């Protein structure tokens, strides 16, 4: 009977593990599983799509990336879509991008391009570039991406455009990383997938709060109605996440989860580049309206506490030779891991990801909340002016 008796410490730890497990269970089934649920609904034809392919403008932001344009632009220009234009806005004009775009313009009459002068000041250069693209566009529906992004298929625009219903004003798509080798690539890919499951999951739940500018669309009239980026001109970033946070509602936002609508970003080769991107989004997150930011933070905290609690219960159980306590702690971890692996890997498959997460999953699951704390600490010690407009 002593084996069935738990001391006070074991009781407290196992109770904490159980409560945190239930919290995690709710997040995974009510939020993170929504992309997979949506994909199944689409396959059953339970989701209504527009049958009309409206004309659209693709706006591509480039930062003097002639090699990326040579690699990716043709795939955009040769999309299987009846009526569209492509507008490339180059941030700067010191490389060969302008010459390349002029040459391509002779072959593709629907290609237009301009640039942000190096002398431009007093506004975020990316926001200025996007604004120039919007003003130059002919059509109401605008699809946004970047020069380092490659559409997964020639059906990218068709698949995104099927969401251009009469009520829709915003369409959020998925952008994943091309598969690369090495630990950094695996970490970045997992982080991107998981965060996409989070923000697209909220949108599918009727609580949209951000979008990523590598793959999204919205109406030009929405941009003008909101006076563009006037609400956050003092920040370098925010052209995508803050704009969507301000304008998206359950009624005007749709999510596209089909693998044909995915764009692939080139793998990150330097940890510094990834860190700067994460820190920038951490800064703009302070300006998000709605509870989603706090709910996401609560999930991250509960996840970290779950790992602390089950490991502590396991260790104490082993040290006390109380195998039942140790076994219960490990069993709860195994149940959560199984649920997590199923949902994450099914979602990865739905989104056309080639990589799967099994042995690396527990490691990334612990590292991610620690990384989040690291990004926040970086923001505290960085100069405020680093994030203001230049």
UniProtKB/TrEMBL annotation:
<feature type="domain" description="Glycosyltransferase 2-like">
    <location>
        <begin position="57"/>
        <end position="223"/>
    </location>
</feature>
<dbReference type="GO" id="GO:0016740">
    <property type="term" value="F:transferase activity"/>
</dbReference>
<keyword id="KW-0472">Membrane</keyword>
<dbReference type="InterPro" id="IPR001173">
    <property type="entry name" value="Glyco_trans_2-like"/>
</dbReference>
<dbReference type="InterPro" id="IPR050834">
    <property type="entry name" value="Glycosyltransf_2"/>
</dbReference>
<dbReference type="InterPro" id="IPR029044">
    <property type="entry name" value="Nucleotide-diphossugar_trans"/>
</dbReference>
<keyword id="KW-1133">Transmembrane helix</keyword>
<dbReference type="Pfam" id="PF00535">
    <property type="entry name" value="Glycos_transf_2"/>
</dbReference>
<keyword id="KW-0808">Transferase</keyword>
<feature type="transmembrane region" description="Helical">
    <location>
        <begin position="12"/>
        <end position="30"/>
    </location>
</feature>
<keyword id="KW-0812">Transmembrane</keyword>
<protein>
    <submittedName>
        <fullName>Glycosyltransferase</fullName>
    </submittedName>
</protein>
């Amino acid at each position: 009977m002593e084996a069935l008796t738990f001391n006070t410490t074991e009781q407290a730890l196992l109770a904490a593990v159980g409560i945190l497990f239930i919290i995690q269970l709710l997040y995974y089934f009510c939020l993170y599983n929504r992309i997979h649920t949506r994909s199944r609904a689409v396959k059953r034809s339970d989701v209504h799509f527009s049958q009309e392919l409206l004309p659209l403008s693709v706006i591509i932001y480039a930062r003097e990336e002639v090699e990326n344009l040579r690699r990716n632009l043709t795939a955009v220009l040769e999309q299987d879509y009846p009526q569209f234009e492509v507008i490339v806005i180059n941030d700067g004009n010191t490389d060969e991008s302008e010459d390349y775009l002029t040459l391509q313009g002779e072959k593709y009459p629907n290609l237009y391009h301009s640039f942000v002068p190096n002398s431009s000041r007093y506004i975020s250069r990316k926001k200025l570039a996007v604004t120039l693209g919007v003003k130059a566009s002919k059509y109401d529906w605008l699809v946004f991406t970047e020069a380092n992004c490659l559409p997964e298929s020639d059906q990218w625009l068709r698949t995104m455009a099927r969401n251009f219903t009469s009520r829709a004003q915003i369409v959020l798509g998925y952008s994943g990383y091309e598969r690369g080798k090495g630990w950094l690539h695996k970490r970045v890919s997992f982080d991107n997938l998981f965060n996409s499951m989070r923000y697209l999951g909220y949108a599918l739940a009727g609580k949209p709060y951000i979008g990523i500018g590598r793959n999204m669309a919205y109406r030009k009239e929405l941009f003008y109605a909101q006076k563009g980026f006037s609400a956050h001109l003092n920040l370098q970033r925010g052209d995508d996440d803050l704009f969507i946070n301000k304008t998206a509602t359950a009624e005007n936002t749709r999510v596209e989860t089909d693998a044909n609508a995915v764009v692939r970003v080139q793998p990150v080769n330097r940890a510094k580049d990834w860190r700067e991107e994460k820190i920038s989004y951490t800064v703009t997150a302070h300006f998000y309206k709605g509870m989603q930011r706090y709910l996401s933070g609560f999930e991250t905290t509960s996840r970290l506490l779950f790992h602390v609690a089950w490991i502590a219960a396991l260790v104490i159980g082993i040290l006390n030779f109380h195998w039942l306590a140790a076994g219960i702690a490990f069993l709860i971890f195994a149940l959560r891991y199984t649920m997590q692996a199923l949902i994450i890997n099914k979602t990865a498959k739905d989104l056309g990801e080639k990589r799967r997460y099994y042995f690396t999953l527990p490691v990334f699951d612990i590292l991610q909340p620690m990384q989040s704390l690291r990004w926040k600490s970086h923001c505290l010690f960085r100069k405020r002016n680093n994030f203001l407009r230049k």
